[in-house]
Write a structure and sequence with these properties.
By secondary structure, this protein is an alpha/beta fold. 33% of the residues lie in helices and 18% in strands.
Length: 270
């Protein structure tokens, strides 16, 4: 299938409550695609509203499984142990303890809730306009970031737009620049990367998360670090949209992707 110059750093497996994909299936797919590395980032969404599945996993079992696969496939691909933390301000102490206990290579901080509700479910928008929910979401991102910043990249910044009643028709960077700029300035100040998450491309938005205008503004404000992830919950979409994302990043002034091992930055040039 050709050679991928960089790997996928936002990938879910059966350790996530919303995925059934076994890690080895995804690893096999990554190897066939020529990826030099792969980072699993399963969900750790503590105090998540009941959605019928668990959004947490056993970190000890998770690290043990990744160590096993890392050794098994060490001649073919580098496997990293990541995690996607579902940000909420009151979880800061529990997250710090978790990250102190387990040696994750890479930590994504993602806001999945707005006013305590997952926008994936349409009732989040009941009685509200898209703008009201979007603004509440960005306010929650900012509050979470002010409370806890021990993560490596901010995941899918405008995630909420995927689920709005009018989706992108109700959204632009300029309409929310006052809130988004505050978020981006904090990322730059704290030297946290910004993820380009390609799920938006395959979910009909017509752009990744965040919108290219947000990526461009992050660069203008002094942002240096971008990570790339498909947010794959099944191996068939691993690396999807990466070529388009690479061109977007080039147009925004970036010349390299950031990846992490042992929470340390490494760079892959385009």
């Amino acid at each position: 299938m050709g050679y991928f110059p960089f790997g996928d750093t936002h990938v879910h497996s059966a350790f996530s409550g919303d995925s059934e994909e076994e890690m080895e299936v995804t690893i096999g797919r990554a190897i066939s695609m020529g990826m030099p590395y792969l980072t699993f980032t399963d969900h750790m969404d503590l105090d998540f509203p009941d959605c019928g599945v668990s959004m947490i996993f056993d970190p000890a079992a998770y690290m043990e499984k990744i160590a096993e696969l890392k050794e098994k496939y060490r001649e073919k691909i580098q496997i990293y142990a990541g995690i996607e933390l579902g940000l909420q301000p009151h979880l800061s102490a529990r997250f710090r303890e978790l990250l102190h206990t387990y040696p994750f290579d890479f930590v994504i901080g993602s806001q999945h809730l707005v006013n305590g509700s997952d926008p994936y479910y349409p009732e989040t928008f009941d009685g509200k306009t898209d703008e009201e929910v979007y603004r509440a979401y960005f306010a929650d991102v900012l509050n979470s970031l002010r409370s806890f910043s021990d993560f490596d990249t901010l995941g899918h910044l405008d995630y909420v737009v995927r689920y709005g009643r009018n989706k992108a028709a109700s959204y632009s960077y300029s309409a929310y620049a006052d809130q988004i700029d505050e978020i981006l300035k904090l990322l730059v100040e704290k030297e946290i990367a910004l993820e380009i998450n390609t799920a938006g491309l395959r979910q009909g938005l017509g752009f990744p998360n965040p919108h290219p205008d947000v990526l461009r503004r992050y660069k203008q404000l002094g942002g240096k670090y971008v990570t790339i992830g498909s947010d794959a919950h099944e191996s068939s979409v691993l690396g999807s949209g990466f070529e388009e994302a690479k061109e977007i990043l080039k147009e925004c002034g970036f010349a390299q992707i950031t990846c992490f091992s042992g929470r340390n930055r490494h760079f892959v040039k385009f």
